Amino acid sequence: MRGHPSGFVTPERRAMGRLFQLQEKCLQAMGHTGGHENSIPDGKLSLKHIVSLAFVVSAQYPLISYIVYNSEDMEKVTACMSVVLTNMLTVIKITTFLAYKQDFWRMIQRFREMHQQSNQRNVDGDGYGYVAAANKVASMLGRAYCVSCGFTGLYFMLGPIVNIVASKWRGTTYVRELPMPMKFPFNDVNTPGYEVGFLYTVLVTVVVVAYASAVDGLFISFAINLRAHFQTLQRDIQNSNYALPERETRAALRSAVDYHVELLSLSKHLRDIYTPIVFGQFFITSLQVGVIIYQLVTRLDSVMDLLVYLSFLGSIMLQLFMYCYGGEIIKVESLKVDIAVRLSNWHLASATLRKSLAFIILRSQREVLIKAGFYEASLANFVAICRTALSLITLIKSIE
Length: 400
Description:
Layout: H1 11-18, H2 21-29, H3 47-58, H4 60-69, H5 74-99, H6 101-124, H7 130-170, H8 193-238, H9 246-298, H10 303-343, H11 351-364, E1 371-372, E2 375-376, H12 379-399
Antiparallel strand pairs: 1-2
Helix pairs in contact: 2-8, 3-5, 4-5, 5-8, 5-9, 7-8, 7-10, 8-9, 8-10, 9-10, 9-11, 9-12, 10-11, 10-12
């Protein structure tokens, strides 16, 4: 960076260091290494990566065993189904990340480079501050989401411990229960089977929370960064002075076109690598909402159960909202490039440059959609699922 000694750490460099830092730490905790600056780690999967996936997949056995064991108790079956679906969604996220591991790291590296270029523009006096502000928002949302996932997992973990302590303090008998509805092929009620089952559940929960925080957090961070770069592009186009000599104007327009093409390419790449996750997020969340709504309606007399399922419902809806919000802001900002061209002094441009501007307008009129199959990540679809949830509450209460 010009104007600073090599050892001087500017606020811009510190900001760059924080970009995707939380998500990178979560991935590092799962054995993934992000590589050094300007390098991409290889796509090879080590044993620890396969083990983490196999570990989460293995949790389906005790969960499904619990459903089979309590098949005649609808309340227990539905309580376990919500956890089974959450675990299935995590398997999809881990598998997708492992399959596209290099693509994820490439996008992280590219956005960091673009962030550094944006900071340089701010130093030079021709930046707008959109990217820096966006990364502050992305960092805040990432932390909030990680805390939300962590507290939801912690709440499930602490429940049995609190009940055991409370029963001893009251002098009553308490049949020990695992944090999650699981049934192991050994005695998981008495020592040492209970402790083994409890530790297994804790480890599975840690892996689920870490991958959810990383993969979901990266998506919303990528989306917010793309919005900021689209906003920067819009300002560049809108502020262009087409009354300047054509050679200078042509160079500026070529730079804007290249910038636009790269943002569209990044948006498409984001859609491609997140297609399995977006599909799984919508499909599984729709099922989870139905299961949890049933639990809420049938457990209205228990305040403790009500709090547990409300927090669980809030957690899964937050996950879905992050994808819907991310898809929405990319779609909206990509369309606004058309408006930026129309608001510029395009009428001062030469006939040749006007043709180039017309191509930008035509491309900008096609929405950049984050979708998977018939599911589109948008706020309209998020609201539709919320309305369906309210309709389910009315339906179940009328049946009862």
